[in-house]
Design goal:
single chain; 163 residues; alpha+beta; Aminopeptidase; seven-stranded mixed β-sheet; globular
């Protein structure tokens, strides 16, 4: 079942994010990795800044989360994570479909360039990579991330499902 996450879910959401983000260790640049990947206070700050989360729940257990954030004239897909042991079961795709159905305007997602599995996931679901110059412009316009993260990231734009 997919549902809107509540404030009381925040510790579980943080645990899911940090569990799933362990896939980045040794893949993304070492200077961008830290433990925990997302401290609880950072997650709370993201929520205060307008990231609304939905969760995938099975047997009353939250096992996946994905957020969306309206920024200016676009919707950003943010912080998409599924527990390590529950991956490759379609949970991420179901969460993404839920959020796409609620998004307004252009839909963007940013992820690590080296996380090829994440890039392929979004491409499979109708997103297309933008060029380097456009990526730099979009990241500077719609995200608040350090320059180093801009250098090591990609942006994909939702184009809809291809036939």
């Amino acid at each position: 079942m997919i549902r809107r996450c509540l404030d009381s879910d925040t510790p579980n959401m943080c645990a899911i994010i940090n569990d799933a983000a362990s896939a980045y260790q040794g893949v993304i640049p070492a200077d961008r990795w830290h433990e925990p990947y997302m401290p609880l206070e950072e997650l709370k700050e993201e929520m205060k800044c307008g990231v609304r989360f939905w969760g995938y729940e099975e047997d009353n257990q939250l096992i996946g989360v994905m957020g969306m954030q309206a920024v200016k004239d676009v919707t950003l897909i943010r912080h998409a994570y599924v527990k390590t042991g529950m991956r490759n079961q379609g949970i991420g795709g179901k969460l993404l479909a839920q959020l796409l159905g609620q998004a307004d305007g252009k839909i963007l997602v940013g992820t690590w360039k080296a996380a090829d599995w994440a890039v392929k996931f979004y491409q499979k679901h109708g997103f297309q990579l933008v060029g380097e110059e456009e990526k730099n412009r979009l990241l500077a316009t719609y995200w608040q991330i350090p320059r180093r993260q801009i250098e090591t990231s990609v942006v994909l734009v939702y184009q809809g499902f291809s036939p």
